[in-house]
Specification:
Blueprint (H helix, E strand, L loop, with lengths): L1 H28 L9 H11 L7 H23 L4 H18 L6 H18 L2 E2 L2 E2 L6 H17 L2 H31 L8 H27 L1
Antiparallel strand pairs: 1-2
Helix pairs in contact: 1-5, 1-7, 1-8, 2-3, 3-5, 4-5, 4-8, 6-7
Length: 225
């Protein structure tokens, strides 16, 4: 059981690196647009609907629909016996490859469609580890949990709060390591810096395959008993 918990944790931390990389890449190359979430986009859509003139209104709406399609796919695909984690990692790879191939003058929202879809699938495919719910594609809730957990530990000495704080602190560290990697990659290679993100994608693929193989082997062992 301990080995499974460790693997789950390693996978989540690896996915946080990918999430940070994709988020950093989007912000650096597409006028501070965050490709992993839709709050700012929905706020803009609401203001447009209220009367603000914005030439990007329809591409914003389509971007929202692309993100929602990714969320919906995580409900549909498991019913068709797809392994959602493997699908998500492969989708991250495809999104990064495509992002590096798209022309630099493309509308920023359209250029982010691959990351919109991949990020939403990743969000629903990797929900946490060690019994904690944690997003691997953005930081705000992880920061809240990190801060409140360590505050609780300092106030009461609760060891479980310390364990929780350490978990969320590591997720924050790995996420922002991905952001830093995106910055360095884009500074060196421009839009094609997206392809450097394939390095953590490959390590995630290896970990997920090992985890899937271990799960299948464990099920066969239980069935044999």
């Amino acid at each position: 059981m301990k080995q499974y918990d460790n693997m789950e944790r390693w996978i989540h931390q690896n996915m946080a690196v990918i999430g940070g990389f994709m988020g950093g890449y989007a912000i650096l190359n597409h006028h501070d647009l965050f490709g992993s979430a839709q709050t700012a986009n929905m706020i803009s859509i609401a203001m447009d609907a209220a009367g603000r003139l914005d030439a990007d209104f329809f591409v914003r709406v389509l971007g929202l629909l692309v993100y929602m399609a990714g969320l919906a796919s995580t409900v549909i695909l498991p019913k068709l016996n797809f392994n959602l984690k493997l699908f998500s990692v492969c989708l991250d790879a495809a999104a990064l490859v495509l992002s590096g191939l798209l022309p630099g003058g493309l509308n920023d929202f359209i250029a982010l469609y691959p990351l919109f879809f991949a990020s939403s699938v990743q969000w629903c495919s990797f929900k946490g580890a060690d019994g904690f719910v944690s997003a691997s594609i953005f930081s705000t809730n992880n920061l809240r949990q990190f801060t409140t957990s360590f505050t609780e530990y300092f106030c009461s000495g609760d060891r479980e709060a310390l364990r929780k704080g350490k978990f969320y602190g590591k997720v924050l560290f790995f996420f922002h390591s991905g952001v830093a990697a995106a910055f360095l990659s884009c500074r060196a290679f421009g839009l094609k810096g997206a392809w450097i993100g394939l390095i953590p994608v490959c390590s995630a693929l290896v970990l997920v395959c090992i985890d899937c193989y271990g799960g299948v082997r464990e099920q066969k062992a239980l069935a044999a008993k």
